[in-house]
């Protein structure tokens, strides 16, 4: 089972489950825990291969559906019938997969730095990564991607947070996670259609240049999807602008609690 940690307000309080991105861990939510634990029960998980969830045996058939099922396993262990989910970066794909496969368990989604489609630039980067992943040290690749996705000086805190967490991953785990990105665009398109009835808030930094355009496009097509742009923020907007991220998330979640 995945490593998890809970903060319990009381039995009647709604749950929020936080799902980090690739290379991160549950520690990236340090600027959210104190804020949300005042009104909600909190579930933090380390996805497989990250943080303290290191005892993992990968199979060739493992996919984002596998990752989603592992989060549900933790919820079952804790008798959590339904939860709001806040996801970040690649964790937004896991979050939407949970909503797709287990819609009755999800009350709402808040997707920060959401990845819902890959453009030509991102596909090229991933192709280079897949070609070189077995012979270039993974931290070199990870740092390269971190600087491309979070290039500015004001992104330094969030960039370093993810790099420092990624150092705890093994090369094998990094390669397995990288393999999940193959043929990802058709799957992402499926998720947008299959989760369109789930209330969803996208929170995107205005400097998240790789991932904002497809989010803006999909929000225009689905009435249950909302988008808020956070100024002076990059890809990891929960660290770059935590007060704004927390306030917008709480306001949205309260509507569906």
TrEMBL record:
<protein>
    <submittedName>
        <fullName>2-succinyl-6-hydroxy-2, 4-cyclohexadiene-1-carboxylate synthase</fullName>
    </submittedName>
</protein>
<dbReference type="InterPro" id="IPR029058">
    <property type="entry name" value="AB_hydrolase_fold"/>
</dbReference>
<dbReference type="InterPro" id="IPR000073">
    <property type="entry name" value="AB_hydrolase_1"/>
</dbReference>
<dbReference type="InterPro" id="IPR050266">
    <property type="entry name" value="AB_hydrolase_sf"/>
</dbReference>
<feature type="domain" description="AB hydrolase-1">
    <location>
        <begin position="14"/>
        <end position="114"/>
    </location>
</feature>
<dbReference type="Pfam" id="PF00561">
    <property type="entry name" value="Abhydrolase_1"/>
</dbReference>
């Amino acid at each position: 089972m995945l490593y998890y940690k809970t903060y319990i307000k009381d039995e009647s309080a709604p749950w929020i489950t936080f799902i980090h991105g690739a290379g991160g861990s549950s520690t990236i939510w340090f600027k959210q825990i104190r804020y949300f634990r005042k009104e909600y029960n909190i579930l933090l998980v380390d996805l497989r291969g990250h943080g303290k969830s290191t005892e993992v045996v990968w199979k060739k058939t493992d996919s984002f559906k596998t990752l989603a099922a592992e989060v549900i396993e933790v919820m079952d262990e804790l008798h959590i019938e339904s939860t709001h989910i806040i996801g970040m970066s690649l964790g937004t794909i896991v979050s939407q997969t949970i909503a797709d496969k287990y819609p009755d368990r999800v009350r709402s989604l808040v997707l920060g730095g959401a990845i819902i489609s890959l453009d030509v630039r991102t596909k090229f980067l991933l192709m280079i990564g897949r070609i070189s992943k077995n012979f270039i040290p993974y931290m070199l690749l990870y740092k390269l991607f971190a600087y491309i996705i979070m290039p500015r000086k004001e992104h330094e805190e969030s960039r370093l947070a993810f790099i420092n967490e990624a150092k705890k991953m093994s090369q094998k785990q990094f390669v397995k996670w990288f393999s999940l990105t193959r043929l990802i665009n058709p799957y992402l398109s499926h998720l947008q259609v299959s989760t369109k009835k789930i209330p969803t808030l996208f929170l995107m930094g205005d400097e998240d240049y790789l991932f904002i355009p497809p989010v803006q496009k999909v929000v225009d097509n689905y009435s249950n999807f909302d988008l808020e742009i956070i100024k002076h923020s990059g890809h990891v907007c929960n660290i770059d602008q935590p007060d704004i991220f927390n306030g917008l998330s709480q306001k949205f979640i309260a509507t569906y609690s």
